[in-house]
Structures are given as structure tokens and as C-alpha cells.
Amino acid sequence: MLTVKVGFAVLGGADGELMSDAVVLEHVTKRFDMREVVKDLSLTIRQGALFGLLGPNGAGKTTTLRMMMRILIPDEGRIEILGQPLSDRSQDLIGYLPEERGLYPRMEVLQVLVFLGALKGLPEAEAERRARQWLERLGLSEWARRKVNDLSKGMQQKAQFIAAALHQPSLMILDEPFTGLDPVNATLLKDIMLELRSHGVTLILSTHRMEQVEMMCDSICLIHQGRNVLSGELRAIKRAYGKNVLRIEYEGEDGFLHLPALIEKVNHYGGVAEIKLCPQADPQEILRAAVARGVRITRFELMEPPLNEIFIEKVSASDAQAVDHH
Amino acid sequence: MRFLSKRCRQAMPKLWIIIKREYLTRVRSKMFLWTTLGLPVVSLGLLALVVFTATLRVRHPLQIAIVDRTGNLGRDVLHNLDAKLPDGRPMFDVVATLESPTPAAEQRLLREVARGRLSGYLVLPRALLDGRQAAEFHTRNPEFLTVVGPLQRAVGDAVIAQRLRQRGLKVGNVQQVIRGVGLKMIKVTRAGQVVEHGRTFVTAMVVGMLLYVTLIAYGMTTMRAVVEEKSTRIIEILIASVRPFYLLAGKILGVAGAALTQYLIWAGVAVLLGTYGRALATLARPGVSPPTFHISLALGIYSVVFFLAGYLLYASLYAAIGAMVSSEQDAQQIQLPVTLLIVVSFLLFDFILRNPNSPVAVTLSVIPFLSPILMVLRIAVETPPFWQIALSLGLSLVATVGVVQISARIYRVGVLMQGKRPSLVEIWRWLRYT
After folding, report:
1. B241·A119 Cβ contact <8 A
2. CB burial class (10 A; 0-12, 13-18, 19+) of residue A226?
């Protein structure tokens, strides 16, 4: 497998690199004091993807990202970045926005950015030129000569994003990029991320905010207790679950929802209900039951399950499995 | 090929970028400015104070009176009051000598002194001769120390001459008779040079103190720099670009650069003072030589070399401590053992200076952690054989390599740890992480 890839890179030149995946993890395990934080994790992220790494708190997301960044070394397994095994060079190919964020508080914003750009191999003049462009773009140009300390939290976070993007990496790893941003800045950042992707940049996005992943990402990996529980194209995953969720908006009594033969689970929002149907249940029967009870239906839609639903189901299923094993 | 050569080139520039930032941050800090200026200013101030007090002389002849209750000493005292001002005029202008003073006359003198028309009056009490009472000088400026010597000598000589006369000896110049002898300690160095002991002692003290203070100060600076990167959480961005070892090395070397810059500035000021200081002092206060101490070029170079050796050793320890903790308060608590190691050297100052070549001193001065300060003290007092200096440096280097390896391991794991302080068991585990 490996020889084939190298063969491609040599024969195909630039095309060869395009053919390789952005990130490949093969049977990666990481332990801290005998506790397995990441267990036999394999996953592939193709180039140009906007990839969502999902998982509850403590699932091993940050550890996985740190191993991709070569901040931590896996105990077992291997990792490839852009077709090459991890090396000092691979670090420079990646733009990294860690979850633990910070800049030198007493340095000027521009100085910090130039310093961090230079560490990624940019000449200082070039780093400064690009930093000024980015600051302009993110509305921070007036703050270039101010101390980091003087910036608000949101502004610091934008500066940090600049630090990750400055050296034009073809792969960016963003750990919880939206936390702490107001809606305006979150939208700004989202637009920039989509623009980067349109230029062919691979983006890995770690988060537990499902609605963003659902709207932005094209493929995901859900990890739970260090294991890959679910991964693949988001659309394919949803399709596999089928259109088994019924969304009803109604006026009237909700007694018609007590149909255990048809309905597996109901998420009730008062006037709106998200219903998970039993296998082979006919949604028409629910509509009939509602009409029979004189309930007014204003919306009736059969749809794919929201990612949140899949997430919860997968995580609890995996927990149940773990209990069974014990 | 291209990648390979690039990779080789990359580690060094990254180290260099880290060093540069650290150096500039330290050199631009207010702390650096204050301490760099502070030391020369404070030492200059002390020097000026010494020069000033040594030259706080009477500018004009002092008008005084003598109140002689003994009835026969006044004339001799008057004769002995022959001290001169720097310009050659007599220091004392005795306007009156009361040989049989009445209380009323003394009251008048008191009033004259109080009004400032008389600088003071000298009282020779009746029991002065047999030593039961002391002479008194009544003045508005008793802090005028330069007049004490001449007055004391004048009265003393008169009394001694009188006592001798009573035993049948007639003496012209008492000073010639009672002149004592001094004892100077002259040290013969191995090379056969002769050095006055007091001066080398002062030099050794000054150099030793400077090393002691700068080792602690710059060690702590390194520790704080590491803690700052952890507490501000920038550390994860940094180690996503640079190997932790280079980051650690860059920090230590950057701070070392700042320390060397400071030493260089101080040395420059010292050289300037050495060249022009005496001339300046003479210009300000003619006829006075300011106190001097001499640091030879060799001692200067050895001081810097041993400072660097000691700094590398201690800074690695301080950096490891910085990596263990998440806040400066925690760091302050656990840095104590390391600082105490330096304090031990300080406590041994006196012993080393008194017995620089005793077997114990020789042994102590080659032990890593103690050697940076103690060996320089010995060099300042008397240059030890070169093999001892080389051994001291060599052992220090070996210890540094060992400490750096341990510190780098602690640093690599520690910088990613946040929260509570690790126990010794945990640190032991860190050391064995791959």
C-alpha cells in the first residue's frame, strides 16, 4: 500500500500529492499511565475535505489532533500527513488552532503574528505583509500595533486564527474554532473557512456543536472513548439512517403521539415534535390519528435524522456495548 | 532532495527565531533597563558618597576659643593646633584662650557659638591630665568629623608631653616619640606576585556577589518565561511549530544573551570609570584618591565563563520547574530548593575567602552547582592551578548535559500539563514517557 503511494508521488509529481489523502491514521493508540485515551483509531481524511471530528468531552479528540500535530507521539500505529509520515516538516504544512489558546500578552499583535509566521518558515517581511492583509480582512488593522492584552477575547481569537492561517497551509486543524465568538464573528470565520476550502485547503474541525458540523462539513468521524464509532461522508451516513424522522408542527392536544407501535421516541418542543419512527411504520397512520383527534397539522415532513440524534444514539449504543462487555 | 536539505536548514533558524524573540523581550523589558542602569548608578552613588565624606573639609579657618581649666595645658594645645586647610591657610583661628575661666565668660562663649559668631570652643577639664575626664568641643556642627582628628591630636600631644615632663623628660615633638607601628598583610601568590590582601578581598566579594545575584535573577527569569508560556497557553501553538527541546534551548540561550549584554554594559561602565573615574573624582575634589578595586582581564573573563556555566546548569533546573507548574505562585513555592543551592555558595563565601587553598575549598570549588561562584572567588583571591579550573568547568559541563536531558524530558511532558502541581511520583513517570 505504502509503495503504491510513494510510486504515485514520484511518478505523478504534483498530481501524485493530490492523489494522497490529507491525513491517514492507522490503528493509532495512545496511553497515559496505562489509560488508553485513543484506542486503535483508524481514519482517512481526503484532501479538500471539510472534516468534522466529533465526540463528547473527553472522547480523545484533542489527543488525536495533537498526535497529528506531532505534539504527542502515538504508542502504536502510524500517521501520515499529505502522503508522508510525520516529521518536523509535516508540522510546518499544518495550520493549527489549538483548543487551549493564547498569545504573548505583552507583545504587539503584529509582532506575535510575524514571530509565529517565521516559526513556520516564512521570511519576516513576507509574514508581516500577510499578517497585515489578514488583520485588515478580520477588521483588526487598527490593533496591529497594540498589545495582545488590549484585545478583547474575541479579537484575540481572530488573531489566533490568523496565526494558524498565515503560512498558507494546505491542511488546517481547528479545535473548537467557534467557542467564544459572537454570531457576527462566527459567521465571518465560517465564511473564511468555506473560502479556504474552495481554494483546496483541507480543514479538520473538532467540535461538539452539531448544527455547525451539519451545515459545513462534508465528512465526519465520531469518536467515543477513544474509538472510531462512526465515520464517512455526512450525506452517506444520513442516507444510511434513512428518512425515519417525522417532524410535525401542530395545534391541539398531543395525545395522538401515544402510538407505541409506530413511534420509537419523541422529542417534544411544544407544538413541534420530532418523532423517530419504528422500522416499517407508516407515517400516514400518525397523520390519521392526529386528524381523528381534531388536531390541526401545520407542517408534516419526513426527513433524515439530525446529526445530534445520530450522535446521541451512537454514543449511548457504544456505552451500552461497553456495559455488556463488562 | 529539496525536502531533505530544507529539513536540515530548518531546525537552526527556528532555534534562532526563538532565541531572538526571547532576547529582545528580555532586553526591552523595564526590569532589564532598571537593573542595567541601577547597578552602575548605585555603585557610582556609593563611590561618590565615599569620596564626598572623605573630602568633607573645612573650607575657611574656624574661629574657636580654648577654655583651659587645667591652668597649664592651654598654651601647648594652642601650639599644637597647627592643622592646615588644603589651600595652606591654618584650619583653626584661636581668638581667645581663657586660662582661668569664669562661668560668666563660658556663658558668653556659649552665646557666641549659638549665634554663629564662633565655630566652637574647646574645654580642657581639670582632670584631663590623669585621664579621668575627656576634653570637650562645643560646636553647632558636631558632625563635622574632619576637625575631630586635629583637635584630638593637639590635646593628646599636649597631655602626653605634660605627663612626660612630670617624669622628667623634655620632649619637643611628641608625635616622633609615640609614633606606633603598623602591620600590613602582604600576600605572596604562587607566581611570586605581591598583592595587598585587603584589595583582593574586596574584589572577590564584589565579583562573588555579582555572580550570586545574577545567577538567581536570570535563573528566575528563565523560569518565569517558561511559566508565562504555559499560563498564557501559547505553548501549544509553539510546540506545534518547534520541538520542545529547541524551545527550551532557545529560551535559555535568549536569556543568557540578555545577561551577557548586561554584563557587557557593566564592564563598559567599569572600564570607563577606571579610566576617567579617578580623574573625575580628582577634578571634583582635589587631593583625594577615590577607593578603587581592580578586576583583572583574566578575572573578568573567568567570571563570565563561570557565570555562563552556572547559568546553563541552574537555568535548566529553573526551566524544568517552570514546566512543572501552571502559575507563577506555584513556581515560587517549588523553586526554593534550587535557589537554596545557590545560597549555599553564598554561605561559603567567608570560608573560601579565608582558606582559598585548603583541601576543602579546592574540593568545594570543583563540585558542580557550587563551582560557578566558589571557583571564581578562589580565582579572585589567588589564581589556582589551571587543572583545577579546567576540572571545575569540565564537571560543571558534564552536570549540565545531565540536567538538560532530565529537564528537557520534564519540559516536554510538563508544558502540556495544566492544573494541579504534579507529585514527585508523577514527575518520575514523566521522565520515562517516550
Report:
1. yes
2. buried
Contact between chains at B10 and A118 (C-beta distance less than 8 A): no
| CATH architecture label of A243-303 | 2-Layer Sandwich (3.30)
Do A243-303 and A2-231 fall under one CATH topology? no
Helix (H, G, I), strand (E, B) or coil at A173: strand
Query: Domain A2-231 is in which class?
Result: alpha beta
pLDDT at B1 over 50: no
Selected for mutation to probe chain B from A81, A111, A114, A116 (highest B CB count within 10 Å) is A116
Which residues does chain A have within 8 Å of residue B242's beta carbon, measured at their own beta carbons?
119
Dihedral sign from CA coordinates of B361, B363, B365, B371: negative
Give the closest-approach CA distance of A252 to chain B in angstroms.
Answer: 53
What is the pTM for the complete model shown?
A: 0.75
In this predicted model, what pLDDT tens digit does every residue of B279-303 receive, in sequence order?
A: 666 666 555 555 555 677 888 889 9
Looking at domain B62-178, which CATH architecture does it have?
3-Layer(aba) Sandwich (3.40)
pLDDT in tens, B299-350: 888 999 999 999 999 999 999 999 888 888 888 888 999 999 999 999 998 8
Return the minimum-mean-pLDDT range out of A243-252, B192-201, B361-370, B388-397.
B192-201
CB atoms B240 and A73 under 8 Å = no
The dihedral built from the CA positions of residue B10, B11, B16 and B17, taken in this order, carries a sign that is: positive
B232 DSSP 8-state letter: T
Q: What is the residue extent of each domain of chain A?
A: 2-231, 243-303
User: B242: nearest CA in chain A?
Assistant: A119
| Residue contact A71–B237, C-beta within 8 A | no
